[in-house]
Structure formats: C-alpha cells, structure tokens
Design a protein that fits this description.
- The structure holds two protein chains of two kinds.
- Chain A is mainly alpha-helical.
- The N terminus of chain A is likely disordered.
- Chain A has five helices and no strands.
- In chain A, 4% of the residues are buried.
- Chain A is elongated.
- Chain B is globular and about 80 Å long.
- In chain B, helix 7 crosses helix 10.
- Chain B is built from 13 helices and 14 strands.
- The termini of chain B are far apart.
- By secondary structure, chain B is α/β, with parallel strands linked by helices.
- Chain B folds into two domains: 72 residues, no CATH class; 230 residues, Rossmann fold (3-Layer(aba) Sandwich), CATH 3.40.50.
- Classes of the chains: A mainly alpha, B alpha/beta.
- Chain A: Pfam families: Coa3_cc.
- Chain A: Component of 250-400 kDa complexes called cytochrome oxidase assembly intermediates or COA complexes.
Chain lengths: 104, 422
C-alpha cells in the first residue's frame, strides 16, 4: 500500500497509464493530426501511399480474379428433370390465378 | 445607497452583455465542433502579423536599444554611410536612405528581407509574454521506444515533445536544444550522418565514432566492464554553459543508462545569474544533475589545463571535443586558438566544430587547414547541421549578416600514425 502511494507521488503513475492519455499530437477537440505531426509524417507519405497501393492492388486483383472465374462457370451440363404437358398447363393456371388474386 | 444601487445594476448589465457574447461564441463553437472545424485562433497565438513591429518603435526596450546600436555602429551596404532608414518589409534598420534601399538589388532579389523579418518576429515573440508550454520537455523514454534523429520534426515527434505547430515555438526550443541534440545526433548509433559518399563522414571519422559508440552501447558487447563516465569537452563555452541541466539531460536521454560528464571550458564558461557576471574559479565548479549527468565548469583556457595535465589521460573511446562556433580565424582570438589547437589534436579524440553560417565555417576550415593541415585527419566534411537552431539571428554590426546557431558542422582529429611492419 505504501509502495503504491509512493509510486503515484513520483508522478510515474501519470506517465504509465498505458496509452489512455490523449496524444499530444492530436487536437484534443477535433482529434485531427496537428501540423507538427503532419510535418513529422511527411517524409514517409509517398512511400506509405505506394505500399498501400501495392497491397490494395494485390487484394483487389485476387477478388476480381475470383469473381470473374466463378462468373464463367457453365451449368448447361447439369440435367434438369423432365416435365409433362399436363403438369405445365396446371402450373400455368395456378400462376395466373395467383397473379389475378394479387391484382385485386 | 442610490449610487451603490446604480453601480450594481450597471455591473449586472455589463456582465450579462459579456455573457451574451460568450454564449453566442459558445453556440458557434458547438457548430464548429460538430463539423470538426478549427477554432478561430486566439489573440495569444503568435502569427507573423501580430509579432511584427519595426524595431525602432518596438514595445520592448531592449529591441529599441538594438535598433539604436545598429544605427550607431553599422554602415549602409550601398552608400557606406551610417544607417538611417528602416526597411518597411522587415522592420529592421538596414540602409542609409530610401534611395539606397531601392538601389540594393541583391537585397530584394535574394529576399534577404524575409530572413530579417523572421529575426524581427522571433525576437518579438520571445518577449511577448505568451505561455510557453513547449519548454516542458519530456522525461526518460520507454526502453522499447526508438528515437528518430533525421530531422527536428521527427526527433520531437518520436520523443513526444509538446506538439510545436508554429515556427515560433520551434525557434524558441531549437535554439536551446541545438547544442545537446547536435552532439547526440553525431554520436548516436542511428546517426543521420552517413559514411561518404552517401554522407559527410570519412573512413577516419567512422573509426573515431565507432570507438565512442563502443562505450555508448556497452550492452551490445560481450564483456561489460564498468568504465569511467564519458567526458564531453565543450571548449570556449559561452551560451552553452548557461543552459540549465534539464536541457543537457535531453542529450543523456538519447543514451539511456550511460554516464556523462560535460566539461565546459573557457573564461566565459561559468555565468553567475545572481551576480550577473562570468565567474572565474581556481577549482572546477561541479553541478550534478542526476547520477548519470554532471556538468563541470573550468574557467580558464583549455591549453592551461592541458599543460597542467588536468584532463590526462585522454581516451578516444571515452572523450570527445566540441567547439560551438569558435571563430578560429577571428583576429582577436586566433592566437589563443593557436595555443589550444595542438592540445586538442594531440589527444587523438574527435573535435567537432560548428559555424554560424557558410562563410564563418569556411573561414574556420581554411584557418585550420592552413595552420594544422599536416597534423590532422578530416573526420567529417563541412556540411549543414541537421540540428541547427531554426531561429534566425542578425549581427548588429552588419544587419544583413544573418546566421543561425550551429548552422554548419565539420570534424577533425589529430593524425594517428599506425605501426608499419618492416
């Protein structure tokens, strides 16, 4: 207990609050980066942007390739079960009746 | 009674008016807040406009005094007569008359007035009495945090200084920190100065820096025996000696758990604030900042101590010399430097020399090469110091001579003769 009290007195407790403290380099109100932080990050901006472009190109191209590959799939070889004329007319009648009911 | 009543109602009315204005501003701020807009700048914030005053009519008496000094001592660069005209662009007395000012083509083409204006506004900002939260320096960094020494901005960001958003804050802080961080950036293992041809460091320079880094990073070597503290000698100390301990501590923070002794040497090394004069003492004055850093003031010329063997033995692994704008070739001091320089070269320790501006550094270099060229190795070619002060200054004797502290840097060392197998 005594030790804890001493720890806080030293002011070390304030320093080590594990990232809960508001960063000095963000506006406390708008959370925008301060000009000092923008200046510090400027040397890395283009390299970071290039890395982002490379990584996003890889991801987007994998998605695009998958989409186009699956879109080309041909289902014509899948057999469709045969249907008789009678059943067809019966189904048509049911369908028309449903439509009429819906219109009312 | 009646009077008291009236005054009370008046005061009530005036406070309600103030409250009304404050409320209006408050509502506006809520909108600004919701939209994430920036607040209007407060009147305290420094801007080039609100810090600009001609020095002749400056609100600060010491700047009016400096303007008078310029008028009394400096000469117009066009007519050669006394200075009698204040440049309206920079607010600093620069020429004899308006005609001379207009004729000075170089002054306008090179936009020298822009730099002079910066001198003007920075000086006024320091005397403005605004709050200076940027002087609240950070403490020890966490052991896994790395410092980037590429530029001032990155250094401040990686050390988590106060966010310095304007040039005024940078000027105020870099003028102080230029001395310790210039030293730190040279010696640090991730120094921004690279080996030639990519940077200014020569092969001999790398040998000397490697020796110092051997002592600065004992955790990386197999045997970690405890040596004496590293000694940083600052020869011809003037302003450096007056910097408080917590500023120099920023140098030590770059090398955690390494002990340093800073030796300030020179007749102007120790300034007594209470008495307001330079104090000379037959014994070194020691100020201990904390267990890792102590500052020792020696109030005489270096060659005096060198001849008395006070600092013996020198060790290139543990000792290093810094000369902050020594002005080696100035007529009134060059005889003294001629006595000091052999001692520095004999020690075989690196000697880093900074200059106020290109010409100043070039003069130092030429003087050194002329007088001691045979006895020295160049460790670092003349280059821009990445940690120079960003605050522009001017010479009162020639207002167009503008400079920044530690703007240029180079390094030499006494020549070493290696054993040759016969």
């Amino acid at each position: 207990m005594l030790q804890i009290a001493r720890f806080e007195e030293d002011g070390e407790g304030e320093e080590k609050n594990f990232g809960t403290q508001q960063s000095k380099y963000h506006d406390p109100r708008t959370f925008k980066m301060t000009p000092a932080m923008i200046r510090a990050r400027r040397p890395f901006f283009w390299k970071n942007a290039a890395t982002f472009a490379v990584l996003s190109t890889i991801t987007v191209s994998i998605y695009a390739y998958t989409y186009s590959f699956l879109g080309k799939d041909d289902f014509s070889d899948v057999p469709i079960p045969p249907i008789t004329e009678e059943e067809l007319t019966k189904l048509k009648k049911e369908y028309m009746a449903e439509q009429a009911a819906n219109k009312k | 009674m009646f009077l008291a009543h009236r005054s009370v109602t008046r005061s009530v009315r005036s406070t309600s008016a103030v409250a009304g204005v404050a409320q209006k501003r408050g509502i506006l701020n809520i909108f600004r807040n919701a939209l994430g807009m920036d607040l209007p700048p407060s009147d305290d914030d420094p801007t080039p406009e609100n810090r600009f005053h001609p020095w002749d009519s400056s609100p600060s008496p010491d700047l009016r005094q400096r303007a008078a000094t310029i008028r009394a001592l400096a000469k117009c660069p066009v007519t050669g007569k006394e200075i009698n005209y204040t440049c309206p662009l920079s607010g600093i007395p620069t020429h004899h008359s308006r005609e001379a000012w207009e004729q000075d083509k170089e002054y306008h083409e090179t936009k020298k007035w822009e730099i002079l204006k910066k001198v003007n506004i920075y000086e006024h900002d320091l005397r403005s009495g605004r709050p200076f939260p940027e002087f609240d320096f950070p403490q020890q960094q966490e052991s896994d945090a790395q410092v980037n020494l590429s530029t001032w901005d990155l250094y401040f960001y990686t050390r988590q200084y106060y966010s310095m958003d304007t040039e005024f804050q940078l000027a105020a802080v870099t003028k102080m920190l230029s001395y310790p961080i210039t030293m730190g950036a040279l010696l640090h293992q991730f120094s921004p100065y690279l080996l030639s041809p990519k940077g200014p460091i020569t092969l001999e320079g790398l040998k000397s820096l490697a020796a110092l880094r051997y002592s600065l990073y004992p955790f990386q070597r197999a045997a970690t025996f405890k040596d004496r503290p590293l000694r940083m000698f600052i020869i011809g100390a003037r302003a450096e000696g007056q910097l408080p301990g917590h500023v120099w501590k920023q140098f030590q923070f770059l090398f955690p758990e390494i002990e340093f002794e800073l030796h300030f040497i020179g007749p102007e090394a120790f300034y007594d604030r209470e008495k307001g004069t330079y104090v000379s003492s037959s014994r070194p004055v020691v100020k201990r900042v904390d267990p890792y850093l102590s500052m020792v003031y020696h109030t005489d010329y270096f060659h005096v101590f060198h001849e008395a063997q006070d600092f013996f033995p020198y060790d290139p692994y543990l000792d290093c010399f810094f000369l902050f704008h020594p002005g080696l070739s100035y007529p009134d001091v060059k005889e003294l430097w001629k006595k000091t320089m052999p001692g520095l070269l004999e020690s075989k320790c690196p000697v880093f020399i900074t200059g106020y501006h290109e010409q100043d550094s070039q003069n130092d270099w030429n003087w050194l090469m002329e007088n001691f060229g045979k006895d020295l190795d160049v460790l670092m070619d003349r280059t821009d110091n990445l940690f120079s002060s960003t605050k522009w200054e001017l010479n009162d004797l020639d207002p167009q001579e503008v400079y920044r502290f530690n703007q240029k840097i180079f390094a030499v060392r006494g020549k070493r003769y290696h054993a040759i197998q016969q």
